[in-house]
Amino acid sequence: MLGIDKQCDTFLYRQVIDLITENITAGTLLPGDRLPSLRKMSKTAGVSIPTVRQAYIELERQRRVESRPQSGFYVRHRAANDIVLPTRTATAAPAPLRCRPLMERVYDGVNRPDLVPLGIANPCMARPAAKTLHRTMKRIMARAEERSLGYASTLGEPSLRRQIAYHYLDTVGAPVEPGQICITNGGQEALLLATMAVASPGDVIAVETPTYHGMLELIDSLGMLAVEVETCPEEGVTLSELQRTLEDHPVKACMFSTTLGNPLGVTMPDEHRRELVELLQKHDVALIEDDVYGDLRFDAIRPVPAQFLGSKARVLTCGSFSKTAAPGYRIGWVVSDHHIDDIARLKRAISCSSGFLQQLTLADFLASGDYSRHLKSLRPVLRRNAERMSALVAEHFPAETRTSRPVGGSVLWLELPRQLDAERLFDDAIAAGISIAPGHIFSPCACYTNFIRLSFGHPWQASTENAIQWLGERVSQLAAGTNQDREH
Amino acid sequence: MLGIDKQCDTFLYRQVIDLITENITAGTLLPGDRLPSLRKMSKTAGVSIPTVRQAYIELERQRRVESRPQSGFYVRHRAANDIVLPTRTATAAPAPLRCRPLMERVYDGVNRPDLVPLGIANPCMARPAAKTLHRTMKRIMARAEERSLGYASTLGEPSLRRQIAYHYLDTVGAPVEPGQICITNGGQEALLLATMAVASPGDVIAVETPTYHGMLELIDSLGMLAVEVETCPEEGVTLSELQRTLEDHPVKACMFSTTLGNPLGVTMPDEHRRELVELLQKHDVALIEDDVYGDLRFDAIRPVPAQFLGSKARVLTCGSFSKTAAPGYRIGWVVSDHHIDDIARLKRAISCSSGFLQQLTLADFLASGDYSRHLKSLRPVLRRNAERMSALVAEHFPAETRTSRPVGGSVLWLELPRQLDAERLFDDAIAAGISIAPGHIFSPCACYTNFIRLSFGHPWQASTENAIQWLGERVSQLAAGTNQDREH
Q1: Given an 8 Å threshold on Cβ–Cβ distance, is B352 in contact with A358?
Q2: Neighboring chain A residues of B129 at a CB cutoff of 8 Å
């Protein structure tokens, strides 16, 4: 069972890691099982004892296994059944989008108000924010009268751009010129403008894997190709892999989430961000930095966007109020030093300007401190939801299910038993009145077929709990059914 | 003076027309002057008498000249000094955008609140609409509470799509399925989505000449090329010229205004629309129909968009509330039968959805009849402004100035003395506190160098009158200065 393919060209210690991981995934090694001793593994695998030790330590770092003094290494128990391995896809070549029809069906589900909404990465619609925003907007309407119906300027209302700049200064100590900010129709248009500013049709854009499906649709719509880069749940994209991708393919830009990436929930450590921008500067590749979840760490620690790390790399940082306050306002922004003139030109050409009344309202919402207060009350709600959802998944899903450990944001990423088809689960869930996001849509080659993403961003209700229980049971049935099928 | 270039390959009668027109423009033939007799012209130009007669009749149809019984043809007087000739450009080949830096400067001017705003095609910010819209929005906020902060669906709020469909049924008797309508971030995003749905980077898009600069920027931003088609102030694009363009160039779509095109103000007659869609169907070329001014005819007659003429041509009709009610709401729409699924996919990829609160508010604004009432009060204001502006231009601008005769919308198009540089005038006007739109930006090859567009859509004020007087005087000075320069 423990045979190793010696033709494999990855590092020997990586082979040992893969071998153990596969056996854990397949259920051959169960939680509590002791790993083969260093000596035995060295012999079986034909690698040196220090190499095996290095692999076991890495597995421990990944929380796959734990070392027990004077006893050896053991598979960790269920409670720690996190997703910790770097994710990688079958192909590391630029690929067109394969899962569009399924995406259509996922969106049909998302737009249905009769479903339990676990399919959309939306934050809580906290009633206090609604009340405050409504009150603020009424004040603006009274104050600005018919002026508030007019066009905003192309780059956006100066008072809002000043408030966003101040928010960066306040939370991460970074000085931003309001003149480097362009207000957009939500975070998605921010990504669009940033992409159009630095790349052209036919160009290759590097993305994390798994990555936000909206990025994949955007890249595809612009006639560009996405290439996936191995992504580690602890650190984000693996820089050595990124370097290889940059060397192998004519990558024009990277579109990465630096904080709380969707769906994996990973936040790049500061040092990793620094190395990333240095690498990109060296290759003269732009970074389109998705930072829409930046304000939503449960611990309220705001990582510094790569934009502000002082590198000369071309970084275009995309933010939004859609995940924190008011999705329906459609207000986001791009920060860019190098490309702001291009962005202004593009913004004018594709949508003139963004909603004026909402910009004035949000400027007030930030200036008054209401936004900070709202975040303070939103984060604990999200954290509680995350804990409840993780606990319910642990209770109701099959034992081999692995999950991300959210430290912010509003989504949980689940790896289901390997044979399970998440598209089948998606169909069954829709029929049962539940929307989920199947893993397929988070990769251009639709490769996360046994993964799903669940959102905990909506107000928690009894129907949420019932839905998770139903999903867990259905996954167990499907997994058992699949196994039976295979045994016939 | 009346020599004809016999190498010219256009029809002979067209040569005669050009000859007379040039002499009128140059001031050689003044209003009231008698045209050379048919016989004399026949001899001078070396063409037959029937050909000269045909040319003179055409000139009469164009309101350049008038026939007096038993007397001959005379140059018409100043009061009728309309722009009537078909406009054409030096090149009829697809061309990249040449006037981008000037466009930037024009927008800088448009965005400055300290200038007299004659540079932007904005409707009156009628106070009654602001009051009603604000009241409606407050009601929505109270009714929909936090729901109104959420995402709208990709295609848009069903109640608004129903109201837009009903508005078409009500005003032009056309049945539209709400399912064929996608709500957009203003008319500009409607044009963007329509264009992306039917054409790809590198493709050629046919436009009127002169045409709305926003279309040219859009086409350029998408990596496409615009080709201009001769446009007649009475009928819109000349179909014979369009046919030639379709035969000579790989045109993928036409982007035309069918009603009150900007800046010329032309409305295509119904029969012409019919012939247009038949021609496009024959060539399998899509029509991106800009209809954002459709509700703004002074006579309240709503021409039927080409969309609804029963042809099987692929027509994508773009509308907006930006020119009629609330530019700052950023709410427009596309109607499409054939391409609505592509448009939904693209809408999701580029901006997810449009502002929800504004959609709910406008749905109510239409359903209550407030929108129709608002239009009824807006049209006479625009008509009065148009008349005032035309009268002031006639009074203060040099005699050879020719203007469009607006029958709706909010802009006046002026042809200034031939030698005048509208960019120079633009600079001088900005320095004097007035924003105008120089003709250059209405053609990819920047060829309307002696034209300007003035907007009468803003509330009329003493400063408006002073600005027009100032402009007229400055034009006279520049024209005189230029002539002096040439005499040196």
Answers
A1: no
A2: 146, 149
* Residue B18 contacts residue B9 (beta carbons within 8 Å): no
Q: Which fold would CATH assign to domain A127-372? A: Aspartate Aminotransferase; domain 2 (3.40.640)
Cβ distance of A150 and B189 shorter than 8 Å: no
The pair of structure tokens assigned to A375 is 């975040």
Please tell me whether residue A95 adopts helix, strand or coil conformation. Answer: strand
Q: CA distances (Å), B160 to each of A453, B37, B182, B321, B343, in order?
A: 32, 61, 10, 12, 17
CB pairs under 8 A between A and B: 181
End-to-end, the C-alpha distance of chain B in Å comes to: 21
B313 alpha-carbon distance from chain centroid: 23
CA distances from B368 to B133, B278, B281, B362, B377 (A): 11, 38, 38, 10, 16
Judged by CB atoms closer than 8 Å, whether chains meet at A223 and B214 is answered as: no
Question: H/E element holding A155?
Answer: none
Edge-first strand order for the sheet with A332-336 is: A181-184, A332-336, A315-320, A286-290, A251-257, A204-208, A225-229
Which helix (H) or strand (E) segment is A435 a member of? strand A434-435
CB A231 within 8 A of CB A442: no
Cα A196 from Cα A201, distance rounded (Å): 9
Residue that is written with structure tokens 């256009």 in the block? B10
* Helix extents (H) in A225-332: 239-248, 270-283
Q: Is the predicted ipTM greater than 0.95, yes or no? A: no
| Angle, CA B186 vertex, CA B184 and CA B190 arms, to 5° | 55
In chain B, where the domains are located: 12-77, 100-123+377-487, 127-372
Q: Does A458 touch chain B (CB under 8 A)?
A: no
Cis omega (within 30 of 0) for bond into A210: yes
Q: A100-123+377-487: what fold?
A: Aspartate Aminotransferase, domain 1 (3.90.1150)
Is residue B157 helix, strand or coil? coil
Task: Tell me the angle at which helices B239-248 and B270-283 cross, rounded to the nearest 10 degrees.
Answer: 10
Residues 6+ apart with CB under 8 A from B477: none
At position B237, the amino acid (one-letter code) is V
Q: What DSSP element (H or E) covers B316?
A: strand B315-320
- Chain A interface includes B179 (CB < 8 A): no
Taking an 8 Å cut-off on Cβ atoms, the answer to whether A357 and B328 are in contact is yes
* Architecture in CATH of A12-77: Orthogonal Bundle (1.10)
- pLDDT (tens digit, 0 to 9) for every residue of chain A, 488 residues total? 344 444 333 578 888 888 888 787 666 777 678 899 999 999 988 889 989 998 998 888 777 788 877 788 988 764 435 666 666 665 578 888 888 889 988 888 777 889 999 998 776 665 678 889 999 999 999 987 777 888 889 999 999 999 999 999 999 998 899 999 999 999 999 999 999 999 999 999 999 999 999 999 999 999 999 999 999 888 899 999 999 999 999 999 999 999 999 999 999 999 999 999 999 999 999 999 999 999 999 999 999 999 999 888 899 999 999 999 999 999 999 999 999 999 999 999 999 999 999 999 999 999 999 999 999 999 999 988 998 898 899 889 998 899 998 999 999 999 999 999 999 999 999 999 999 999 999 999 888 999 999 999 988 999 999 999 999 999 999 998 855 544 44
Compute the Cα dihedral for B344, B350, B356, B362 and give only its sign. Answer: negative
Q: What burial class does residue A96 get, using C-beta atoms within 10 Å of its C-beta: 0-12 exposed, 13-18 middle, 19+ buried?
A: middle
DSSP state of A34: B
Burial of B4: CB neighbours in 10 Å, binned 0-12, 13-18, 19+: middle
